[in-house]
Design goal:
The chain is globular, with a radius of gyration of 16 Å. A hairpin with an 8-residue loop joins strand 2 (about 15-25) and strand 3 (about 35-40). It has a single domain (about 15-30, about 50-180), classed as 2-Layer Sandwich (Alpha-Beta Plaits). It is of the alpha+beta class. The protein has five helices and eight strands; from the N terminus they run ββββαβαααββαβ. An eight-stranded antiparallel sheet has the order 4-1-3-2-8-5-7-6. The protein binds protoporphyrin IX containing FE (HEM). The site of protoporphyrin IX containing FE has 23 residues, from strand 5, helix 4, strand 6, strand 7 and helix 5.
Length: about 180
């Protein structure tokens, strides 16, 4: 069975060397030398760790699902030596919206999927959900991206678009951890 639970562990070990850690909205995570993405609930000796589970899609329609399936690359490509971990917590106002209202903010108003699709297949992505694990998790989502160095500008352009969109009004804590595979 494909592993659904993943733990990001920051500490002395791991294939990814952290190059930048910042708080985009709110407090940053503590800096650490290395980062690992470990299958399962990893008991950790690291400085910090965050857990999340992959899940079914909530918002995509059929056309978007097909477009995503056709363009989505796998994680772990040899050339994708840049990674970004972006943990995000959304506000109570977001979670008070109904499913169709959240979809409308995300896509009809913010074009999250349409803009995101333009970054494929350059950027590989994985969305992990934290709220379903426990209400005490510090973030709602752990988003993970891998791409080759020449695609960093494409990724940064997507980040700028998303952060300027109506969806981000509902983001109350967002951190950014950049890393290189070396
Ligand atoms: C959710 C696509 C980049 C943050 C989603 C969903 C899709 C998607 C299809 C909805 C999943 C569902 O139906 O449940 C993409 C694509 C990207 C991209 C193709 C291109 C690389 C990003 C980036 C960020 C981000 C750069 C962070 C800055 C999120 C978050 C969610 C999400 C937090 C969950 C939203 C929620 O459920 O409230 N993305 N995305 N995405 N994405 Fe992206």
């Amino acid at each position: 069975m494909t592993e659904r639970l993943w733990t990001f562990v920051a500490g002395a070990d791991g294939p990814w060397r952290m190059t930048e850690v910042r708080g985009v909205i709110g407090e940053p995570l503590p800096e650490a030398p290395r980062l690992d993405r470990i299958a399962g609930d990893a008991a950790t000796t690291g400085l910090w760790s965050l857990r999340g589970i992959t899940s079914n899609e909530r918002y995509v329609n059929r056309d978007e699902r097909q477009a995503l399936a056709a363009a989505t690359p796998t994680l772990g490509r040899a050339q994708a030596v840049c990674a970004v971990l972006i943990p995000i917590r959304k506000s109570a106002a977001w979670w008070a919206l109904a499913q169709d209202e959240r979809r409308a903010v995300m896509e009809e108003q913010s074009h999250h999927i349409a803009h995101g699709l333009r970054a494929l297949p350059a950027v590989a992505r994985r969305l992990h959900h934290c709220r379903d694990l426990s209400p005490d998790e510090p973030f709602d989502f752990l988003t993970w991206f891998e791409f080759a160095p020449e695609h960093a500008p494409l990724f940064d352009d997507l980040l700028a678009r998303l952060r300027a969109s109506p969806e981000w009004v509902y983001v109350e804590h967002e951190c950014e951890v950049r890393a290189r595979l070396d």
